[in-house]
Design a protein that fits this description.
The complex is a heterodimer. Chain A is α/β, with parallel strands linked by helices. In chain A, strands 6-7-8-3-9-10-12-11 form an eight-stranded mixed sheet, with helices on both faces. In chain A, strands 2-1-4-5 form a four-stranded antiparallel sheet, covered by helices on one side. In chain A, a hairpin with a 2-residue loop joins strand 11 and strand 12. The radius of gyration of chain A is 20 Å and the shape is globular. Chain B has two domains: about 80 residues, no CATH class; about 230 residues, MetI-like (MetI-like fold), CATH 1.10.3720. The longest helix of chain B has about 35 residues. Chain B is an all-alpha fold. In chain B, helix 5 runs antiparallel to helix 6 and helix 5 crosses helix 11. The chains are: A alpha/beta, B mainly alpha. Bound molecules: adenosine-5'-diphosphate, iron/sulfur cluster (SF4) and magnesium ion. The site of iron/sulfur cluster (SF4) has 12 residues of chain A, from loops. The site of magnesium ion has 4 residues of chain A, from helix 1.
Amino acid sequence: MVCKHEHLLDVQNLSVSFKMYDRGLVQKELKVISDLSVSVDRGEILAVVGSSGSGKSLLAHAIMGILPENAAIQGAMKYQGEDMTPEYQEKLRGRQIALVPQSVTYLDPLMRVEKQVLGAGKDAKKKIPALKGIFNRLELDESVGKQYPYQLSGGMARRVLVSTAVIGDAELVIADEPTPGMQTGQAIEALRIFRELADEGKGVLLITHDIDLALNFADKIAVFYAGTTLELASSGDFLSGEESLRHPYSKALWRAMPQNGFEPLDGFQPFSGSLPSGCLFSPRCSMCEKQCRQKIPEMRELRGGFVRCFHAT
Amino acid sequence: MIVKRITNVFFRYALRVITLLFAVSVIGFTLVSLSPVDPVQQYVLSVGSVSPEQRAELEDYWGLNDPPVERFENCLSAILHGDFGTSLLYRRPVIDVIREKFANTFALMLCAWVFSGVIGFILGCVMGANRDRAADKILKRICLLLCSVPTFWLGLLLLLLFSVWLGWFPIGFSSPIGVMNSDVTIWQQIHHLILPALTLSLLSFANVALHTRQKLIDVLESDYVLFAKARGESKRQIMKRHGYRNIIMPALTLQFASFAELFGGSVLAENVFSYPGLGSAVSAAGLNSDVPLLLGITLFSALFVFTGNMIANLLYGAIDPQIKESYANE
Ligand SMILES: Nc1ncnc2c1ncn2[C@@H]1O[C@H](COP(=O)(O)OP(=O)(O)O)[C@@H](O)[C@H]1O
Ligand code: SF4
Ligand SMILES: [Mg+2]
């Protein structure tokens, strides 16, 4: 094939590190995301799962170009094949790419909800019918528009945040844990909206804790751990069971799901400042061998997905 | 519901102001009693030669020989009947003196207050929006400097520069000397007001500016401004939609709560510029043992500062929806 397939969003070997001042004036670099690659195509939902602190929100912020000033990034990010320079990101933000942020603190405490959902710009008023439609679908009463953020329950606030992203006509929606606090029906409705967007030919990057819910709507699942991707699998792989999955951590996640035995994984994710040498999962891996502690495994293709493990088969 | 809330708030503040004024009277009365201030001596001086017998009679008549508590009770009951006594210095009812002097002081403070509020707010926004750039660094240094300069010194400096050397403004008083009060034009009054007002506002605007700067920096670092950025809002849109909205109330509140400093500053500024307001009256009253006027002004200024703080509180409640709600739930 001559023409290489072009992703809507393509992140290759992304690293994010923070300049931190350790005791006094000693500056040190804290690497929180390393060698991370994901891509989103039109028409698909990519779910990103991983425990908290694995770098999911930072990935979202890196794509939007809204990382704090003391953050430095390396690697390549492309949107529709074009390099995402800071200027390009500025053009894309809020127009081509919309973010559903992770918490209520992203709403202005002194501005009424409606005004925030409609957003800035001259054509904000024209979106009122669309707002009514979305509020209706997400079971938000019309009166919610007149309220202030502190008057909303957690679940309501999340639904408001979802509305802010889907009311525009962004081509790519990045949703950072949009469903916690919502009732099951509402969460399903929110994901259904994302699914419809994808089916219209847009792309969705869905960051979530709730693998179970994501499996029913997403096309692909990226498993994050300590700031990198350990596996990229199709939702089907997760649904069909442990054997279809590739990485020991993904398998452990699968076993920890309620319907699969609720079996927790011992140990904890290493902290950014004290990562193990070699495979990041090695301290918790039952298949760990000498090689695993010496070298970080590369992402490799396996059975239609990708995995970062020497011994996965 | 709303009526109940308003009466509720009204009674709360009424109770507060009564206790405040009572406490101020007690403290003021005690301090004056303990101090070497001698109203009889002052009266005697102004009347001319008085024999020791007459003097003793006078003391008796004024009740100076009664026990302190009884004196305080008499004083309080007079005040409750609206009688604040007669100023020894001006030979007129204290109330009238305060009314007249306060009109002058009010003009002075209002100018200074508006000027310092507006300039302080604008400078604060400029500094906050340009954080750590040259403009911010320079302005911040000026503000810090102004914060530490004493009023009288700054007043003297302005007086020297503009009145003595440049001759742009008069050296003192609220109107030209030798002109009948009724003939003084508003322009002459304003002309006399500018320097003292400038002195007074130069001192308080730095505080507003630094406070606004910090508040704006906090707002610009907030999650909601980050989200606004993520939604493609420009810097200008962010200031317009989120910036001012979140800093105007703290600034206004601070401005109303600054009535106490304004009053204190006006005493010094008025003395430097010989401006005939409440500030010069209070120092004159103190120096001349004019006890009724001194106590009258003390009570009045307490009321004034209280009003400022009350407005600050109410404003905060009226505009910040979160506080409004907590009022409603009380
Ligand atoms: N501003 C920051 N400075 C330093 N470290 C940060 C900063 N923001 C996030 N981190 C670190 O980066 C890691 C990933 O954070 P985050 O992306 O928020 O995780 P997640 O969204 O997966 O829960 C965490 O360990 C967190 O402590
Ligand atoms: S590379 Fe080694 S330690 Fe890492 S997951 Fe694979 S088997 Fe386990
Ligand atoms: Mg997060």
